[in-house]
Amino acid sequence: MGWFLLRPDAIKVLSDEGARRSLNRYFGILEGRYHPKFMIASRIPVDFSVDDSLRSLWDIHRGALEEYRRLEHRIDGGEVKLEDVPVPQHSLLDLKAVIVRRLLEECCFCERRCRVNRIKGEVGFCRCGEMFLLSSAFHHLGEEPELVPSGTVFSIGCNLVCLHCQNWTISQRYEAGDPISVRELARIVEKLKREGCRNCNMVGGDPTPWLHVWIDTFRYVKASIPTVWNSNSYYSVEASELLKGFIDVYLLDFKYGSDRCAERISSAPRYVEVCRRNHLEAMKSGELIIRILLLPEHIECCAKPILEWIAENLGTWVRVNIMDQYTPHWRAYEVPELRRRLYREEYEEALRYARRLGFTNIVPP
User: Fold this and answer.
1) Looking at the predicted structure, is the pLDDT value of residue 1 above 70?
2) Of all helices (H) and strands (E), which one includes residue 293?
3) CA–CA distance from 179 to each of 120, 172, 213, 343 (Å)?
4) pLDDT at position 359, please?
5) Which of 249, 209, 244, 228 has the alpha carbon at shortest distance from 61?
């Protein structure tokens, strides 16, 4: 059975005014009018040495990003064709791969900043090493309609410990996963594209521990496929900088509106501050879909403050998915209010509040 029969909304969304406004470049890539950011980054010439200091590499990266923005604007505007831009010996994408590899020696991909040397086999909070561990890769029909069919690549490991995690066997490493190289991963991405997937959806667990692998992988991807960063939003400033000029769509969780709740349920200190920062940067450097998974008895402390902040800082036209599908998983029984499913009244209250704030681009339930 065709996916369009199971998800007719994935066809309807192609003419949805709100979705197209907030995801203009993404739809343009699907329609062949624009190019994915990683392909443009691969045409930005950069002069550097792998022996340069990390500070020097960051300075070069900063300047190259400015050049990237200018070239993206010219290509999107039709002033120049991507295929007419020479392929440099060393590109911005190559520079990102060198920087992220250097960061792996004192890992700071996420806000925990464990500073372990993963190249030498040390592991931090997420327990991820150097080699990518694949759980599965397939056509996902359960994502937002604009993403379906989504080429989801599930990696092992996560930088959070959400007690109610639906994918706990993946995130908490109860599955071993299959170690694969970046070239193998690139072939998987291209296969998903050939088979009709709209995007490469980097997910887990969380993609943050594998930032070095994802950047390196797309040095070998030749297919014009949008990149989707499907994350819990708990990544570092350094990671955020490296995602610029690489990620097309940020599919970001906004899990909590209260740090107390974030620490109690997900062991995530300063989650609200970090999450807000990354949403602001995502809006500047790419296109954004925000996921808010409603938790039982967390409408007042979390959902409403989240919606208020989004309305005030990102706008009421931003694409928001207010999700009602919470079910208790893994260790949810340790948190009394999470032992049950969401009441219909809680979901309706969150929706009413969002509409009262003026949100106009809510993903249809």
Assistant:
1) no
2) strand 287-293
3) 17, 16, 12, 41
4) 99
5) 244
Handedness of CA 143, 147, 151, 156 (dihedral sign): negative
For 130-166, how does the pLDDT look when each residue is reduced to its tens digit (9 = 90+)? 999 999 999 999 999 999 999 999 999 999 999 999 9
In a domain, residue 166? The reply is yes
Query: How big is the CA angle at 101 (ends 41 and 249), to the nearest 5 degrees?
Result: 40
Interatomic CA distance for residues 200 and 191, integer angstroms: 10
Asked if the model's pLDDT at residue 354 lies above 90, the reply is: yes
DSSP H stretches of helix in the chain: 3-6, 9-12, 17-22, 24-30, 37-41, 54-76, 92-103, 168-171, 182-194, 211-217, 237-243, 259-266, 271-285, 304-313, 344-357
- At 88 the three-state DSSP class reads coil
Cis peptide before 45 (omega within 30 of 0): no
What is the distance between the alpha carbons of residues 310 and 233, in angstroms, rounded to a whole number? Answer: 14
Identify the domain containing residue 291 by its residue range.
3-22+136-357
Query: Per-residue pLDDT for 270 more than 70?
Result: yes
| Gap between the Cα atoms of 169 and 156, Å rounded | 9
Q: In whole angstroms, what is the distance from residue 114 CA to residue 112 CA?
A: 6
- pTM assigned to the model: 0.98
352: CATH = 3.20.20.70
> How many domains does one find in the chain?
1
365: confidence class by pLDDT, cuts 50, 70, 90: confident
pLDDT digits (tens, 9 = 90+) for 285-330: 999 999 999 999 999 999 999 999 999 999 999 999 999 999 999 9
The DSSP H or E segment spanning 134 is strand 133-140
